[in-house]
Design a protein that fits this description.
15 helices; Cytochrome-c3 Hydrogenase, chain B; 3-stranded antiparallel sheet; 47% helix
């Protein structure tokens, strides 16, 4: 009788399919994964501690470096938390601009996911399509604030500057182009037998298990849970906009892909509504030059591309945050990895890991 022995296999931390310095310790029985242990902590960033030695305003650039694929969302959640301490509300036009920037970030982030997910499964054409579309979104960011990745654009009480002349027309053209590009991407992937075989039924996540782990964003919605902070706890002007929350049924790799694909289309619709409804007026509230929020604490959360991004700020009445803490959506999502990989094949690990959509800068913060 042949003795069955377990093999311990390291995937990462230097591995192209781990999307960063991330390590998974796999226990294998032949080609079957019996357990997977995520290992993090290779970046040693310490951003939350750095904030304690910075002024309130100087923390904003640190938020860009958390989820650097969707920096505007982190600008927004930090600004909203501090605004609660300051008891101020941004002007209406600023709120519209914030929503446009947040949804552009969602599109840019999801396009990175859609492209790299296809690449991990061997579909090189997908990443070319997606990054071509993403460049047009980055052109809009550059027109607004001069940057394409780390923006520091959303500020306390509003935004750093109003939209430049011609931005509305440029954005409308980009949205039309994106809709055409997404249709081409759908035609490329939807009928691809290899893509469907590698994703359908692979790594399903039970909705109750996901909720117990604190999973949020497209991953939990792919399992059929309609949890989206833009709808459940509306902020800015989301309650004035019309959009749907895409949901999956099986919670497998295909559903996680499809939910993000559909969210890009919904974000395009949201941006088009904002461009049409956006009022004129001021783009920032009046603030003192030296900020000293009253002693206390405040928590804010937004729906980022990877799920619920939370920010807790604690003030002792000085010019520096006493404490800054980030609730990372990716950190909670990666914790469910062992649950959805047990019993799968080694080749499926790449697809499952890619479907979680990690950004290690936010995890190792």
């Amino acid at each position: 009788m042949t003795e069955k022995r377990e093999l311990v296999l390291n995937m990462g931390p230097q591995h192209p399919s781990t999307h960063g310095v991330f390590r998974v310790i796999l226990q294998m029985q032949g080609e079957t994964v019996t357990d997977a242990k995520p290992v993090i902590g290779y970046l040693h960033r310490g951003l939350e501690k750095l904030a304690e030695h910075s002024t309130w305003q100087n923390v904003i650039p640190l938020t860009d470096r958390l989820d650097y694929v969707a920096a505007m969302s982190n600008n927004l959640v930090y600004a909203r938390a501090v605004e609660k301490l300051l008891r101020i509300e941004p002007p209406e036009r600023a709120q519209f601009i914030r929503v446009i920037m947040a949804e552009l970030s969602r599109i840019a982030s999801h396009l990175v996911f859609l492209g790299t997910f296809g690449l991990d499964l061997g579909a090189w054409t997908a990443i070319v399509f997606c990054f071509n579309m993403r460049e047009k979104v980055l052109d809009l960011f550059e027109a607004v604030c001069g940057q394409r990745m780390t923006f520091s654009y959303i500020r306390f009480g509003g935004v750093a500057a109003d939209l430049p002349d011609g931005f509305v027309e440029q954005a409308q053209k980009v949205m039309t182009s994106l809709k055409e590009g997404m249709q081409e991407l759908a035609d490329l992937i939807n009928g691809n037998e290899i893509f469907l075989a590698r994703t359908k039924g692979v790594g399903p996540l039970d909705s109750q298990v996901g909720l117990e782990y604190g999973v949020s964003g497209p991953i939990i919605r792919a399992s059929g849970v309609p949890f989206d902070l833009r709808v459940c706890r509306p902020y800015e002007i989301y309650d004035r906009l019309s959009f749907t929350v895409p949901l999956g049924k099986q919670g497998d790799c295909y559903d996680r892909f499809r939910v993000r694909f559909d969210e890009v289309l919904e974000s395009i619709s949201i941006i088009e509504q904002c461009l049409e409804l956006m009022p004129t007026g001021e783009t920032t509230a009046k603030l003192p030059r030296r900020l000293r929020p009253q002693a206390g604490q405040a928590y804010a959360s937004v729906e980022g591309p990877r799920g619920e991004v939370g920010c807790l700020v604690v003030s002792d009445g000085s010019e520096h945050p006493y404490r800054w803490w980030i609730r990372s959506a990716a950190f909670a999502n990666i914790s469910v990895l062992p649950e959805i990989t047990r019993g799968t094949k080694l080749a499926d690990m790449v697809a499952i890991l890619a479907s979680i959509d990690l950004v290690m800068g936010e995890i190792d913060r």
